[in-house]
Design a protein that fits this description.
There is one protein chain. By secondary structure, the chain is α/β, with parallel strands linked by helices. The chain is built from 3 helices and 5 strands; from the N terminus they run ββαβαββα. The radius of gyration is 14 Å and the shape is globular. The chain starts with 15 loop residues before the first strand and ends with a helix.
Length: 136
């Protein structure tokens, strides 16, 4: 898959595409509160690792939807929304320190856990991360 900078990766309808309007104005790194927690996939379209792991995020979104798991699987295009990405990196450098970065957020909008870069982005380990956040 060869994706140009201006394009976006393709996600299924079970993955919600976030925009800067979904983030708090007071805290660049916090999402607006919602009814359920969220797992956010921060990516840039030209990144080979992002392109390779995007199908796993789609599979995770489909699993969540099919099983009525109370969490939203989301994506955020850091290339398209450079200003918000820059603000997050400035306030909390470790949140988006590489692409892709996967972070869970509590329903109150605060970040909960970052998926370790060293661990391969596999469906089963992402499922465990989702189950952990909904039990908090």
């Amino acid at each position: 898959m060869d994706v140009r900078k201006s394009e976006s990766l393709k996600f299924s309808d079970s993955v919600m595409e976030l925009t800067p309007k979904h983030f708090s104005e007071e805290k660049s790194w916090a999402l607006l509160p919602g009814k359920v927690p969220k797992l956010v996939y921060f990516y840039v379209p030209w990144c080979k690792f992002c392109q390779k792991s995007a199908p796993t995020i789609n599979a995770l979104g489909n699993w969540v939807k099919r099983n009525n798991i109370p969490i939203l699987i989301c994506s955020f295009n850091c290339e398209l929304y450079k200003e918000r990405t820059g603000a997050i990196k400035e306030d909390v450098p470790a949140m988006i320190d590489a692409y892709p970065s996967i972070v869970t957020f509590l329903s109150n909008g605060n970040p909960s856990e970052k998926y370790p870069r060293e661990i391969k982005r596999e469906l089963e380990t992402l499922k465990v991360m989702c189950e952990r956040i909904i039990s908090e």
